[in-house]
Amino acid sequence: MAFTQDSWMIKYDACETLGLEIMEKISYRNQQPKNSVAASKASANARKLMKKYDDNMTSLNQTLLASKSLLTDGEFQRRQGLMDALRIKKVQIDDAFNSKEEGGSRTALLGAELGTHSTNVWDIEEDESTRDLSFDEIKEKQKFAIKEQDKGLDTLYDVVVRQKHMAQNIGQEITLQNEIIDDIVDHADNTRERLIKETRHVAIVDRKSGTCGYWIVIILLIIAIVVVSMIPTK
């Protein structure tokens, strides 16, 4: 089981590293001129890695749920928190990847509304993803992008709710532990008081036993003197 747990963490670290790599490629793509070969190639590479990221995240979540009975509650919640971090990173990746493309779509939509399919009077470079699309198709593409953003927000909301529940559970556990600690302190105080009381009793008994011993010795000496005095002398 230790090997399975270690392999899960190794896969998680790899997925986290992959997320950073995707963000770097998206940043590189955004630095390239629109419609350039470098930008198109970077977008394709980013899409491929994003698909791999989604698959890895799904695999991690399935493995975690399957091994729930083999983990402690605290460890399972900790790993759920790690999965939530991956989901938040996915939302950030999707937003970063779509931000530039959506900007191009809005520009294309503006040109379409002004009836400038063939002539761009604003001298704005139109994104190739919308260049050959009609006005209705561009609107549908924008609706799809907004829908994807809503899905990302829903995922983020679920993550926040789960984190809230985890925080509440941790708060309840801390309260319970504090109550246990208070009980232990109370018991320790009671034990200390009883120990002090018993120590005093022992001291009193010790003093009394010492005095009693002295009286016994004195009585024995008196008896010895009387006996000796009663013995006739020649």
**Shape from CA axes?**
rod-shaped
CATH topology heading of the largest domain: Methane Monooxygenase Hydroxylase, Chain G, domain 1
Average pLDDT score: 77
Strand content: under 5%
Order of helices and strands: HHHH
Measured between the Cα atoms of the first and last residue, the distance is 102 Å
Q: Which structural class best describes the helix and strand composition?
A: mainly alpha
**What's the total count of β strands?**
0
Low-pLDDT stretches are 1-5, 102-126
Protein name: Syntaxin-8
Domain T-SNARE coiled-coil homology: 143-205
Keywords: Membrane, Transmembrane, Transmembrane helix
Pfam family, one: SNARE
Descriptive terms for the model:
234 residues, mainly alpha, Methane Monooxygenase Hydroxylase, Chain G, domain 1, 2 domains
Topology, pairings included?
Layout: H1 2-31, H2 37-66, H3 73-113, H4 135-230
InterPro entries: Syntaxin-8_SNARE (IPR041875), T_SNARE_dom (IPR000727)
Keywords: Membrane, Transmembrane, Transmembrane helix
Protein name: Syntaxin-8
